[in-house]
What does this fold into?
Amino acid sequence: MEDRIDMADGLGRERMYDAAIVGGGIGGMATAARLQRRGLTTIVLEAHGQPGGCAGYYRRRAFCFDVGATTLVDFGPGGVGGEFLEEIGSPPIDRDELQGYIAWLPDRVVPLDRDPAAWAVERARALGDTPAHRRFWGLLDHLADVFWKASRKGVKLPIRSPADAILAVRSLGLANLGVVRYLNWTLGDALRREGLQDDRPLVALLGMLIENAVHSTVEDAPLVNAALGVTIWGAGQSRARGGMRGFWNALVSRYRELGGVLRVGREVLKVEGRSGAFRLETRKESFEARRVVLGVPVAAASAIGPPGVAEVLARYRRRDDATMGGAVVVFLGVPDSEVAGQPVLHHLVLEDYDRPLGDGNNMFISVSPEGDLETAPEGFRSVAISTHCELAPWEGLSDEEYDRRKREAGERLVGLARRVYPDLGRDARVFEIATPRTYERYTKRPRGAVGGARLSLANANQKAVPHDVGVPGVWLAGDGVWPGLGTVACCLGSRIVADAIVARG
It folds into this structure.
């Protein structure tokens, strides 16, 4: 995936591209590949030394670690990700279907099975089978079914034109239009309706799932988005062979086969000009394009332009900048024996019902499968342990304070993970810790924030940052715009942006 020189494009200095995409994460690369497949000439400019962003990877001592996203969602036939691969003419990604998770609550263990029937039985056993519980889960199941189908049909939000409204009706189906009333509900509202707001195990499990899926809370998460997040493993989660590195190798290879140009180590400092004649400046050279797709966080898009973008985005930033959050991640390269004995590779762990989520009270564990030699040497595995965190406590620290806090956070996460894997990390060949400062350095995300704004009724769906902000020739892509974070969300967003660009001509 090296930044190879492509003599056909004259190093990018003279050629006028149909579209320049700033940011080589899932949203940016998927948009570029779709446009390239549809006959437009594209170039992707990525600040880091390789594409991926918060769905990327890094290598250390023969191990390979996923730095953010560790799974692909809905990449099977007919899924949002599957549709993307089909459109760009890519063969299916070599991947393993995941059976589900295990949630480790303080007083019980709850398997989250991919099979809906098995999950229904397990949640009734572990979390309650009263009429209130059945009504609550019935509502979530219904909303998830309706909106997963709508996503696969390319529904677009926010609705800004009659064409958008017609697409939304067609995507939902006339028989399901009644679910629109739930767009003004939170997950907390649904729990309160059934009197379940004080059911600690249920609320804790939902909280962990919501935090991972939409970076929100039970009280704030819009109900529709929460329903999708709570059922995300049932929508078809898989892991690429070789982890996200395997995914990116396949995607970049196909993009280049289509004639697309990828330039890494090209941080875009400024975008100038207007529709039909944009100029993108980097430290190494400049590039020209008729259109620009900003596949970077909203704050970064505001900083680099082009003219008019910062002014349009200012109101969204006033609303959302304070809602951004980060992550602390421990990366371990360990012997097989340290992660043996569990039937699944992904675990959610909560230490204390009475403490807020994040900052090490809960975490997500992802383990590479046995025998995946692209991820770890024979006899070893790669492990990532992550927890969400606030950004402010990691800012303004001296080097000594930062090192101490980072070490303590890593030790805490590994200690809690030993509830699942008692010997984890005792003979680690790699033991590294990432913080918001790490993400800011390597992914160039302002303050090291990950995953876009924490979703709420104030900033989601009809109130989300749109892909088309009204600046001619400029579109936004990635986790800062609707529908938000995750591989499936960014694939859907790329479809919306590509459709709009092609329709405008």
